[in-house]
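Running this now, will post back.
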Amino acid sequence: MQNAPAFRTHETAALPVAGFRHPADLFEALFQSIQGGEKHVRPPLELTPGSPFLPFIEIGYALRACVEDKSRRDYLLQRLLPHRGAIIGTLPASLLPHGMLPRAAPLPGFRPLEQISDAELRAWLVEDGGLIYGELQRFELENYFDAIATLIRPGGVMVDLGSGLGKVVMSAALAFPFQRCIGVELMGYRHALAVRRLDALLALARHGLAALPTPLAPDTPLQLPFGGEASGRHLLDLASRIAFIEADLFKVDVRGASLVFMYSTCFGPLMDAIAGKLAREMQEGALVSTTTYPLNHPAFKLLCQFPAGTVAWTSVMLYQRTGALQALSPAEPSVSYEPDPVEWEERVRQQFAALDSNA
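Update: finished.
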């Protein structure tokens, strides 16, 4: 991809749309309506018998007890040290005040950390990373769309694995002539919020379409925000082109996807497994986009890489699925980044001090 555009470096204040005189006004109003998801309230996980998160809560409680009891912090550090590469940040996010662990008393039978194995602990840390929510700001997403626009062809299916509140899915459906844009999200509350935001988007679209001075006909030529061309059906059929699925990304087949997007900054320990899944399922020529972590698999050719601070705050990579899987060499095992143990422990102790000072 040559002659990359000059990327935006910060968010600019968006002027409210005063009226719907042209389709461009409607596009802008729709884009504005799906911003701000990173500020949503994270509800605590459900602490009830039968909850699918009960094993996660049990181990989280055991870890949090060691954070809150200063006499047990050295033991906590000892247990976390071998798994520090699986932690997003310094201390696991669920152990911090804004984490999603409930504050109710533990259920009878919850084990202390001493009774929890290393394998259980590592699996918990991977799951904790997957619960962290983040999304690209609007200017970063616009940078990304500018960067990939020349590779997007009319038709095709875009799939966002870990779609959160649906911002990327809905933005892509507006920006590009995809036949369908699908979001896959494991967390039920995030899926519900995405569906609610989609309902609001579609209501606004209906209102804006009805307010246009000249009705938008299905065959009316339409200029898309990032240089592509479509017809009036692009907006008239918006409801049929967007879907959200509440599911584990490993249980959703992406065989028909022409672009798989992942805001994968929190997927570090899962990236090898995800790369293998995508290599088995995706068709030759399809695109995959990741953030922060690369796809270390011979089935994917790196088309372009944007360092942190260009497209987004973190690095962004774009790959293409190439070659028959059976003809490729086995993937080389990759090792997640392991922080220096001394520096990591110092950061944890600083975080302990900050938690104590804010208590």
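The mean pLDDT is 92. More later if anyone needs it.
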